[in-house]
Known about the structure:
- The protein is an alpha+beta fold.
- It has 14 helices and 19 strands.
- It catalyses: ATP + protein L-histidine = ADP + protein N-phospho-L-histidine.
Amino acid sequence: MKHLLRLSDLRWRLLWLIVISLGLIFCMWQAAQLAREQALSNLQDDAENELRLSAANLNGYLLRYDYLPQMLATREGVQRFLDSPDSQDSMPLNLLLDRFRFTSGVSDVYLLNRDADTIAASNWHRPNTFIGQNYAFRSYYTDAITGGQGRFYGLGVQSLERGYYFSAPVWLDDTSPDAKPDGVIVVKVLLDDVEESWAEQDAELFVTDSDNIIFMASHPELRMNALYPLTDSQRDTLRATRRYAMEPLTPSGIQLEAPYGADSYLVSFASGPLDGGRYLSLTRPIPEFGWQMHILKPLTPVVNAQWLAALMAGGLYGVVTLGGGIGWQRLRLRREREAFAERERQTLARVRDELEVSVERRTRDLVASNQRLSDEIEERRRAEANLRQTQDELIQAAKLAVLGQLAAGINHELNQPLAAIRAYAENGRRFIELARVDKADANLAQIVELTQRMADISAQLRQFSRKSSERQETISVQACIEYALRLFQSRLRDDGITVVQQWPEDTLWVEGDLVRLEQVLVNLISNALQAMKEVASPVLTLRVEIAQQQVLISVADNGPGVPEHHLGQIFEPFFTTKAPGSGLGLGLSISSRIMEDLGGKLQVANQPTGGARFTVTLPCSATPNVLPPPSVKEHNNHA
């Protein structure tokens, strides 16, 4: 029984699959047909508009030269030369015709006598000049010599260029009733400009004459082809007129597939330059010249529209089918859910009660956890504040440690002026007893100068020992380095250390905390001096340069340098290469941390010539708009 049910279900599914597939095919086919008709209609409208405009353009282009032969035929110079050509120089007339050709924009202008011989021409100076040629076989001559106006199109006998010819009779005596023209003036117009404008269109345009010869075409390889194959008699007749010289007049290979409206066909090409293409062809007559103008619009947009419509229809059909299947499936599932919901309603009620109890218990746990987390956050905040305070105190302690190292030199700097002050004071008292006031005044002046010197030394110590305000300001790099050097004046002088200062003449500026930058430079200079204690000729090199909007401050010595295996640990806290009791190993670690806080970095490298080089890198800052005036106060920004 189950096997029969499965077989029946499989048959129904197969039947539905066949029906849906046939419906999809029919829907796509019908949509493609409708899209094809609509696309062909739009293509035909576009082709008709383009064909009408192109025909009007060609007609207007040629007719604007229609009056030129008649105007030239009435010129006195033309008539005077035609009256007696043998006794006159033809050069003035040739030049006149050449100027007229250039002004009017035509190809050639020439004059035929009564016997159809060319006696003057605008191309008199060319190797293929018309002068001396006889054109009695041309219809533009036979029409004009009988008193009418001639028109002709074809290949030139000499130039083999396609052109359209306008001619008019030249009368020497038009008063007599039986007077006949004495010559013919001819104007040749090239058709290349019109064809170049056709090439810009998304279509193939060409013009055929009464013999179905393609005389003009936007596609160069279509020119001088026969629209349909010619018979031998038609080919002999055309060659007799010499209209197309000895051109082979190969068939274009066009094939008419089906008509589509009046003067409109669906065509293809079995051979020729358009081999393999399918087009919508429209034809429009140009009665003024006895021509037919054709346009070929590619059917590619029609094919694309068919595919697009078929795919969209198939997609829509698929969406509708899928929607129907989903709707039927949802209906079936809804019935199953209703039955299942009835069975589960009691279970859900029981679970709901248990869930409420569980949620209440979990809520109490979450409240307790949240309280513990808040306490931990507050404890972490207090720890971070203490850490920040400890860090600031550690930086200040490192600064005071450097200050202690400078104490001996500073003590020497202060002892000398103190001894001198005592000597000058004793001398001053003696001079006062001897009533030598001028000498006493000179000693007092020396005492004032020495006290000022001691005040400067004290001001430098106070400024260096003060705590950082962490205020960002614009700092002069050169002035900051010179200040740091002043703290080591006595030590540099007593130890015989040569100081090399290399920086540009223009002041370089950076943004940062002045006190912290001074502390970094003092630490680096102090370390460099300690590294050169055992060097015979110590040299301290201070260099400032700018590269890629970064200011690089280098402090280099010619000491033993940093061992290669210690370069990666040099900035770690409590790491030092000095002897025990000579330092805590915090100076470079604190200096590196300060540079990170200022948005820069501190690097170390050994020099090829010996010694270590520490480089401070900071972003370059713009020059301040207003420079602060010099000040002797402690909070000088070295600008």
